[in-house]
Amino acid sequence: MNERTVYEYAVVRVVPRVEREEFVNVGVALYCRRQRFAAVRIHVDRDRLRAIDPDVDIDLIERHLESFQRICAGERDGGQIAQLDQAERFRWLTAKRSTMIQCSVSHPGLCVDAQQTLDELFAKLVL
């Protein structure tokens, strides 16, 4: 029987105009300590973003989201934060901030396969 392990996830959001507090879900970040798993999946729906703000700089947002992915993966070109351990990177990425890229609060769950769970959450919450 496969053992279920605790994971945490947060929804990655783009808030084109912070003062209006409108957002589009663009990704999911998931961390599972027991499976040594930390990853984020991103999909930017340009039409949804333009519906909120026709002047949004989507190329800039995509560059920031690429950095977000590099940090989560712990890639060398992700800067100093990317060199932290998985838990610290996840906590840093999902910390509350008032910028165009924000995360929901972290939610816990139980999973057998962290990658499969990430894929399911991504399909449910972003696509």
Question: Could you provide a short overview of the structure?
Answer:
This protein has helices at residues 46-52, 58-73, 86-94, 114-125; strands at residues 5-14, 24-32, 37-42, 101-103, 107-111. The protein has 127 residues and is α+β, with helices and mostly antiparallel strands.
Description:
By secondary structure, the chain is α+β, with helices and mostly antiparallel strands. The protein has one domain (about 5-125). Helices cover about 35% and strands about 25% of the residues. It is built from 4 helices and 5 strands. It has helices at about 45-50, 60-75, 85-95, 115-125; strands spanning about 5-15, 25-30, 35-40, 100-105, 105-110. Strands 1, 2, 3, 4 and 5 form a 5-stranded antiparallel sheet that branches. About 25% of the residues are buried.
The rough form would be described as globular
Number of strands: 5
Spell the H/E element sequence. Answer: EEEHHHEEH
Q: Catalogue the unreliable spans.
A: none
Question: How does the helix and strand content classify structurally?
Answer: alpha+beta
Mean pLDDT: 96
Number of helices: 4
Give Rg in angstroms. 15 Å
Number of domains: 1
